[in-house]
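Q: Could you write out the predicted structure for this multi-component system? I'm mainly interested in how the pieces pack against one another.
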Amino acid sequence: MTMKPQACEQRVASIIPRPVHIVTGQGVFHLTAETIVRSNSAVSKEARWLQSDLSARCRVAPTRSREDSAANQRPHISLELAPETPLPAAGYCLDITPTVIKITAKDAAGVFYGTRTLLQLLPTTTDFESAEIPAMTITDHPRFAWRGMMIDSARHFIEVDHIKSFLDWMAFHKLNNLHWHLSDDQGWRIEIKKYPKLTEVGAYRESTPPYGDRKGSDHTRYGAFYTQQQIQEVVRYAAERHITVLPEIDMPGHMAAATAAYPYLGNSDLPDYAPKVQNHWGIHPYTLAPTEAVFEFVDDIFTEVCALFPSTYIHMGGDEAPKTQWEASPRVQALMQAKGLKDGHEVQSYFVKRVEKILASKGRKLIGWDEIREGGLSPQASVMSWRGEAGGIASAQEGHDVVMCPQSHMYFDYYQAPAAQELAKGAEFQAFENFLPLQQVYQYDPVPAQLSPQEATHILGVQANLWSEFIKDFKKMQYQAFPRIAALAEVAWSPAADKDYANFLERLEGILAHYQLAQINCGPIYTPAPQ
Ligand code: TNX
């Protein structure tokens, strides 16, 4: 099926995130079974991806050829690494003429992003034999180096195949950081060889709260975990798509599952101390104790975590750690006295600083939720600002690197249409009880106006968080993530000066067709009625 010129133009207008610069050209490139994908060896992987993505979409796959093939005289797609191009890191030039589609970049990531843009220019049918791709030249690069999504495997487990599919869609949107929340009060999900009970005990809870009931219990055992081999598989799959996987082991709070497995890690000198893997949501009191035995455990855990994840950063959580157990524990009180720690906040700060040393000894950098500022931020730490922007602003002003993910704009577990409207569709549409429509995601600017240009250099980028209390399966995960992921992509990648919601919505039409083709269970686009 060939596309009408009008439809071609529509496709040009449908790229998300919006590229920095597009110049339309003359004529069209005919993509057919005869089309060849060629590349130099440095980007042969990217060529392989493009070819396999194209073959999933075209009836007959284009073939791949070596650089020196005589067949290169035919219309072809060429991927080239050109280290001396003036393009910034991860930027690319996609030049489409009637005879050649050429993607050039300084690095392999840039070439990869060029191929992602090209895929968005394809017709949204599966079995076309020939497609007209309009001539144009796109020069593009990301605004931020950190373009992230957090997924939560602790509250509800996410199958490896579903994570892989999610990674594909992150790549489609040019996102490059998967923050993987692997432990929480409701489950420990990563195999740790030295501490087998973490998964034997900590990966299972007695019951799953049914939708609609935050405290409910249906008395069935719920649980699962990732073997180290599965983790490696995910990390490898992500890396091939230029995505870094950032592991999070949340501490010292959100530790009910680990303390249920090994009570000595907690404040076990308290009377009637009996931690359990939790079966309802919210904040629980089971913190790790700041003892030497615990720091030894933390060191061991991160030894195995670092062997699995090559990321520069390791996330230690640090959020919502209640001080109640520390204040009640005679052992922690004695420790505080010995170390001169005045209150629970100083214990939290002491804990974070110890973890930072452990991570530094393994050549890694610490990142944590903005509560790691409590009682004084450790010297080299980076901060994820989720309770609004204040923690991020203060951290950047003090010279710390920051990823912005304020709940006001970046919490994809919230409703995207009014709750009453969603719940009318059925109890399974329940989401976390706040409201975050698409437009609000789109309007976010990760660089707060309060920051000077120098301070703003500490804003590494932006991330959306998809907590899974109310996300029981992959269909619901898609529902919460799409189409807000498209708005996130544009916030993270495109120039702030080009922001235009109406224009974004027009381009989103074309992207929705891609979602539909892949049978993505896309959430609603809610537009508030004019007052
Ligand atoms: C707060 S954001 C949490 C999570 C919850 C989330 C629900 C953060 C660091 N902690 O434990 O899942 O709210 O939106």
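A: Regarding packing and overall arrangement: The CA atoms of residues 64 and 153 lie 38 Å apart.
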